[in-house]
Specification:
245 residues, alpha+beta, Gyrase A, domain 2, four-stranded antiparallel beta sheet, 8 strands, 43% helix, globular, thymidylate synthase (FAD) activity, Thymidylate_synthase_ThyX_sf
Length: 245
């Protein structure tokens, strides 16, 4: 049986992108009076301060007043490795394209997620306003031990069925949600901002969110790439309370 690997991190890589602040500007201008100049129509609706700041002002105006469609004319594709329970949360966002590796067609690798020693373990509060606090040393040790034991036992059962000639699509049913999977996810900036608004916890957010830590780890890495690709859009997103337009 292959050696089991345990990870406490996730992988997010930007594999391709066609995403620039200029994409937002072109889309906004052509929707009114063409691309030649910064349109009077937009300037008249925005404030004088925005008008004086050119491209940054226009993007901020679009974000602030939630003119969302200009933020859709771009594309980012990420390669993600994370435990399956994270992917189930990803796919609640029906605003992206996903292709995930298939346990029907290939044997799944024995890579399992185990929380790090710094991961909060205790949930307090009420639905919609939970806080997560550090656990005791005993709780952390228990989580680590039982996660490793359950993962190893489940993968051994998986291997026994495969060796007996059972189809992969059947054998995989014994595997736990903390086994790693991989996928490509493609989305535009508007969709990504919606994802980030829900899957990160930040001070100054207009609508506070309380994401599970593991999907927040993915969101943070995606946000880093977004900030590099579209700095004016990213700045306006933060300035306006991290609300997707």
């Amino acid at each position: 049986m292959p050696e089991i690997e345990f990870r406490s991190d996730v992988t997010v890589e930007l594999v391709r992108a066609s995403a620039h602040d200029s994409d937002v500007l072109f889309a906004a201008r052509v929707s009114t009076q063409g691309e030649q100049t910064l349109t009077k129509a937009l300037l008249e609706e925005s404030d004088a301060e925005a008008a004086g700041k050119g491209d940054a002002g226009l993007i901020n105006y679009l974000m602030r007043d939630r003119h969302g469609s200009p933020f859709e004319h771009n594309s980012m594709t990420f390669y993600v490795q994370a435990p399956i329970f994270v992917f189930r949360e990803f796919m609640r966002h029906r605003i992206a394209s996903y292709n995930e590796e298939s346990g029907r067609y290939r044997e799944l690798n024995p890579v399992f997620y185990v929380p790090s020693a710094t991961r909060n373990l205790v949930q307090v509060g009420k639905p919609g306003a939970y806080d997560f606090l550090p656990g005791t040393a005993e709780q952390a040790a228990l989580v680590d031990q039982l996660t490793r034991e359950a993962s190893a036992h489940a993968y051994a059962s998986y291997q026994r069925m495969l060796e007996a000639g059972v189809a992969r699509e059947v054998a995989r049913i014994v595997l736990p949600l903390n086994i790693f999977s991989s996928m490509y996810v493609t989305m535009n900036a508007r969709s990504l901002m919606n994802f980030l608004s829900l899957r990160t916890k930040r001070e100054g957010t207009h609508f506070p969110s309380f994401p599970q830590r593991e999907i927040e780890m993915c969101a943070e890495k995606m946000e880093d790439q977004f900030a590099l690709l579209m700095p004016l859009t990213y700045a306006a997103f933060n300035k306006n309370g991290r609300v997707a337009p």
